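Here is the promised in-class demo. Please do not try to memorize the tokens; focus on the logic of going from shape to residues.
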């Protein structure tokens, strides 16, 4: 089963050394050329949308196996390689401020690939919705700070984005593939994988949240003043907790579920009332419809109308040449250079003809297997 979904990583500081980055770019160029030539552009997108394969690629490029930088650095390397080459694949976005340039970069990529205006707008909408879903419809405690949108000249796309949880010092990476997205708001990841699971997590994309999605959309179509009265009725000023009656109770022993939202975006709800969204996807796409408002609508849907959302969290690798921090062993620079040379020569000789091409691919596979055996730590 093809897996697109999430991966868990630790938040690690620091930057990749320039000598390693340059080698990663050269090696990735050989890998991508071989893949596009032998497997095609669509298969490259499928591989990048697979968190297991993406992690294996990062390890092959000698980057950290468990670092948040795995996502940002590898995507930066791929963007440098793909956007400067003739692969028929390009990447928009990146980390931090660069992620906010995705719409304008997609416009340039679309013009380069000869896309129609409508196709470009659809790609920009897809970029917006993938971020909106992972940041708002799925509330797992990770705030997105990296968004890479990968598109082929065939019009298909994949997304690799990452959020951070400053409290746990962890990062979570999300993978998308256009072929797997039937509806942005209904389990669009196809399958979710991750090293850890946490609860409760509000997942408005779960199949079991369908009634809650419909009720939330109906509520958004209602007068915001009525919604305000419902919100304010949940907890009166006189309502208190049991803590004052148990003076010896320590704060760390009090377990709470943060369901109530005290700051919904009323302007966004007013916009929704004017727009009258037809479905949950259109509701989620409205400007200002953030986590607090989505959570509030879900709460009303549950408490008033019995439409309960899902609170279940919808959620491993070898090294070929070592890792940046010397884990599990220092980077073998000569072996990395040798692999790059082998890939470059294989690509050149593959152009001699189909038979020679197949021969070189088989030969390359044997060489890689031999090098992996030699690189295994003892």
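The designed amino acids, position by position:
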């Amino acid at each position: 089963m093809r897996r697109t979904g999430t991966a868990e990583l630790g938040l690690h500081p620091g930057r990749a050394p320039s000598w390693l980055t340059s080698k990663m770019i050269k090696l990735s160029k050989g890998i991508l050329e071989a893949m596009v030539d032998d497997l095609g552009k669509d298969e490259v997108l499928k591989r990048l949308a697979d968190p297991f394969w993406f992690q294996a690629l990062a390890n092959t490029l000698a980057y950290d196996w468990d670092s948040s930088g795995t996502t940002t650095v590898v995507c930066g390397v791929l963007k440098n390689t793909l956007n400067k080459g003739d692969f028929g694949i390009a990447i928009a976005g990146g980390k931090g401020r660069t992620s906010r340039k995705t719409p304008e970069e997609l416009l340039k990529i679309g013009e380069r690939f000869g896309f129609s205006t409508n196709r470009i707008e659809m790609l920009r909408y897809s970029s917006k919705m993938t971020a909106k879903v992972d940041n708002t419809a799925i509330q797992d405690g990770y705030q997105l700070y990296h968004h890479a949108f990968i598109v082929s000249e065939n019009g298909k796309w994949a997304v690799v984005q990452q959020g951070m949880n400053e409290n746990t010092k962890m990062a979570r990476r999300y993978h998308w593939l256009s072929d797997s997205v039937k509806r942005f708001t209904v389990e669009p990841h196809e399958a979710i994988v991750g090293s850890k699971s946490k609860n409760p997590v509000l997942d408005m994309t779960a199949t079991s949240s369908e009634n809650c999605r419909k009720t939330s959309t109906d509520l958004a179509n209602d007068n915001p003043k009525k919604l305000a009265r419902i919100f304010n009725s949940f907890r009166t000023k006189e309502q208190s907790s049991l803590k004052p009656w148990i003076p010896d109770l320590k704060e760390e022993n009090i377990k709470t579920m943060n369901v109530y939202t005290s700051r919904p975006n009323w302007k966004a709800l007013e916009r929704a009332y004017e727009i009258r969204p037809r479905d949950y996807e259109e509701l989620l796409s409205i400007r200002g419809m953030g986590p607090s408002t989505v959570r509030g609508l879900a709460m009303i849907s549950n408490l008033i109308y019995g439409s309960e959302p899902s609170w279940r969290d919808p959620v491993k690798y070898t090294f070929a040449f070592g890792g940046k921090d010397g884990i599990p062993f220092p980077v073998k620079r000569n072996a990395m250079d040798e692999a790059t040379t082998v890939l470059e020569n294989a690509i050149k000789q593959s152009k001699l003809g189909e038979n020679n091409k197949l021969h070189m691919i088989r030969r390359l596979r044997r060489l890689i297997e031999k090098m992996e055996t030699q690189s295994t730590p003892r």
